[in-house]
Amino acid sequence: MSLVFVQFRCAPGRTYEVADAIWDREVVSELYSTSGDYDLIAKVYIPDGEEVGHYLSSRLFDIPGIQRTLTTMTFRAF
């Protein structure tokens, strides 16, 4: 299993709606609101054998109200 963090920029006024939709899909292990350029950040474990881009695109990125995403790959824990 690999771990990625995904940040979401939402359309104005739609952050709570997007957050509810993300959480309802049961794909993320943690979800937080953030300050800065993005509105939300999610911790997502990618199952072994899954391609990261395809996994995220097919499970999260089609949610209405998402304007932009930024995915950060992780490599090892210290």
Highlighted features:
single chain, 78 residues, alpha+beta, Alpha-Beta Plaits, four-stranded antiparallel β-sheet, 2 helices, globular, Dimeric_a/b-barrel, Tscrpt_reg_AsnC/Lrp_C, AsnC family protein
Runs in which pLDDT lies below 50 for 5 or more consecutive residues are: none
State the CATH superfamily name.
Lrp/AsnC effector binding domain/regulation of amino acid metabolism (RAM) domain
Q: Helix tally?
A: 2
* CATH architectural name: 2-Layer Sandwich
Distance between the termini: 17 Å
What is the spatial order of strands in the main beta sheet?
2-3-1-4
* Shape, principal axes of CA atoms: globular
* CATH fold assignment: Alpha-Beta Plaits
- What is the mean pLDDT? 97
Helix content: 10-25%
Measured on Cα atoms, how large is the radius of gyration? 12 Å
Number of domains: 1
Helix/strand class: alpha+beta
- What's the main sheet like? 4 strands, antiparallel
Give the helices and strands as they follow along the chain. Answer: EHEEHE
Task: Please report the total strand number as a whole number.
Answer: 4
Q: Strand percentage, roughly? A: 35-45%
Question: Care to describe what's here?
Answer:
With 78 residues, this protein is an alpha+beta fold. It has a single domain, classed as Alpha-Beta Plaits, CATH 3.30.70.920. Helix content is 23%, strand content 36%. A 4-stranded antiparallel beta sheet has the order 2-3-1-4, covered by helices on one side. The longest helix has 10 residues, at 15-24. The protein is globular and about 35 Å long. The model has no long low-confidence stretch (mean pLDDT 97).
